[in-house]
Design a protein that fits this description.
The structure holds two protein chains of two kinds. Chain A is 30% helix and 14% strand. By secondary structure, chain A is an alpha+beta fold. In chain A, helix 9 crosses helix 10. The model of chain B has no long low-confidence stretch (mean pLDDT 97). Chains A and B meet through strand 4, helix 4 and strand 5 of A and strand 1, strand 5, strand 6 and strand 7 of B.
């Protein structure tokens, strides 16, 4: 058996056929920590470590699983804020505390080893390091359980934020543009999916018609769905419902990208429990089966991805996911693509042709009834825009919709399959869930 | 404020040396007859490094799209806000594009589709970067 860090689990090529473990792996539990705007650097019950332990405990309780049953832990061990950090100052080092908070581990960074030690998980045999973000982690967990590397696996995704304006530090505070940034930063590209998507979005408007503010109904609806999500930032902090007027009068970040097109960085953690379908049937909740997972990592050909590339990438990712699931656009009931920046969602919607939406038709779709109680409940989760930059609402809502426990967000249409992702058009992963294994 | 200063590496040094001489050179794969920018270790199309060489290009292009940076994250560029950031395609191969702040064009007044030509401006003593200016 390959060592955890050499494990080849990805389904990141075309032509792999239907996933060999389709319907044999299930998601049995999930848990969320509180979602704070930031960690204040002082309160020890609000560190990412404390929140990750809490989320894991909730996921285990949701499934009815004891610590000794956990034999796999997949925990993202990098900063969500990346090389530029979360503030104008250094994230680390800082004054540390007594063990187990005597380093960044447990404060702003979490890894499997820390979780295993804190929670006393004695029977873990699969705990890889260098773990990617949740868009791919869920695929790794599904494949690992399917392959028998572990039977009951926790997936943990911490999302950290400290004081100061997001990503103004580190490399963004440098006078020099190093590495790949020598081709982008001198002219103002600070690196991120705001830039990657806004240029194709401009080209989209010229090619298909429409204007940037045609995104307003989508963003407003994301906020509405977020307020219907009891654990999310917007609901727990009573953020007022965004209106169309709020949106169109909001300030620009990268004109035409507006403030409300951007997600709100938060400090939170979430955990998901993957297991075999057979085991899941004996657990506390109805199983949510995994029908396929897929990943992609497309390389752009020049400085800035253009509309042709974005559409090609998302088309390929959609074909890859549908091929592996043995399903097509008409089979997808719940659709929760990533919305970290609002212009991304339209490319996914059109690529996957959810509810028949084709290239150039997203704005008209957004202007229709996309409420959760309506005929086209797009992004029923509210995503990041409605819940804060947790990157997990897409997964949790999908699970709840299939279980029938989404409460005020429960859709009125059929809810037997769900497609969810934290992904960008160029890289990441998708997962398809089903209420039934076949 | 001057722009951020690019740090050349072994792969990009010939490019930046040419820029300092006010020349624009791109990698060209003779097997694929394809230009590529930014430079890479191998041809983006065939995957081979064997047929890559530097080729001077004319430096003519067109503005494909633009944004205006009003609240960016780069500390060094904040005093310049708001400023244009355009995506400029190369006439010799429009699949190749560059970023440009379009010196001489006011923020928000970018003529999408207009012709541009390469120019060079200083970012540090003895260091130039390539820019693009709308052709009158």
């Amino acid at each position: 058996m390959a060592a955890p860090d050499q494990y080849r689990w990805r389904r990141d090529r075309d032509g792999l056929g239907v996933w060999e473990h389709r319907g044999k792996v299930a998601l049995a539990g999930f848990g969320h920590s509180p979602v704070d705007r930031r960690w204040d650097g002082v309160l020890m019950d609000k560190t990412l470590g404390a929140y990750s332990v809490l989320a894991c405990q909730k996921a285990m309780d949701d499934a009815g699983v004891m610590p000794d049953e956990i034999d796999g832990v997949i925990c993202c061990d990098s900063h969500i804020a990346g090389g530029s950090g979360g503030s104008a100052s250094q994230w680390a080092p800082r004054p540390y505390f007594a063990p187990p908070y005597d380093s960044e581990w447990g404060l702003t960074l979490i890894n499997a080893r820390w979780v295993i030690e804190q929670m006393g998980l004695r029977n873990v045999r699969f705990a890889p390091t260098g773990v990617p973000t949740i868009g791919e982690m869920v695929g790794m967990a599904a494949q690992a359980v399917g392959d028998g590397l572990c039977n009951t696996c926790l997936v943990i995704y911490p999302a950290g934020n400290l004081e100061g304006r997001y990503r103004r530090g580190g490399e963004n505070a440098d006078d020099y543009a190093r590495g790949a940034r020598q081709w982008t930063a001198p002219w103002g590209n600070h690196g991120g999916n705001d830039f990657i998507n806004i240029f194709p979005h401009r080209q989209y408007c010229r090619k298909y018609g429409g204007k940037h503010d045609d995104l307003a109904p989508f963003v407003v609806n994301q906020h509405r769905n977020g307020l219907l999500t009891p654990w999310g930032y917007n609901a727990t902090h009573k953020v007022p419902q965004l209106t169309i007027e709020d949106y169109v009068s909001s300030r620009y970040i990268l004109n035409p990208l507006r403030l409300w097109d951007c997600d709100r960085p938060v400090n939170a953690s979430a955990a998901y429990l993957f297991t075999t379908a057979d085991r899941a049937r004996d657990m506390r909740q109805p199983p949510v089966y995994v029908l396929n997972h897929s990943q992609h990592n497309f390389r752009q050909r020049t400085t800035q991805a253009d509309l042709d590339e974005i559409e090609d990438w998302t088309d390929r990712a959609a074909r890859r996911m549908y091929e592996g699931a043995g399903l097509g656009p008409k089979d997808v009931d719940i659709f929760n693509p990533y919305d970290g920046y609002a212009p991304m969602a339209q490319f996914f919607l059109e690529a996957f042709q959810w509810h028949g939406v084709k290239r150039g038709e997203a704005f008209a779709f957004y202007a229709g009834d996309i409420r959760v109680e309506g005929p086209h409940p797009f992004c029923s989760s509210g995503g990041n825009l409605g819940n804060g930059r947790t990157r997990t609402a897409m997964y949790t809502d999908s699970i709840e919709q299939l279980r029938g426990t989404a409460g005020a967000r429960q859709v009125k249409i059929r809810a037997e399959t769900a497609l969810a992702a934290f992904t960008t058009p160029s890289s990441g992963g998708w997962i398809m869930f089903g209420k039934h294994p076949r | 404020m001057p722009k951020l200063i690019p740090v050349p590496d072994a792969l990009s040094q010939p490019f930046w040396d040419a820029v300092n001489e006010r020349r624009l050179v791109l990698q060209h794969c003779s097997a694929c007859d394809r230009l590529q920018y930014p430079p890479q270790q191998a041809c983006h199309v065939c995957g081979s490094p064997a047929n890559l060489a530097w080729k001077e290009v004319q430096g003519k292009g067109h503005i494909a799209a633009y944004i205006v940076i009003e609240d960016g994250r780069l500390n060094r560029r904040m005093p310049d806000q708001p400023y244009n950031l355009a995506m400029v395609t190369l006439d010799e191969d429009p699949r190749v594009n560059f970023y440009s702040n379009l010196p001489g064009t006011s923020p928000y007044e970018v003529p999408v589709g207009a012709a541009v030509e390469v120019t060079f401006e200083g970012v540090a003593p003895g260091r130039l970067i390539h820019e693009w200016r709308v052709v009158a």
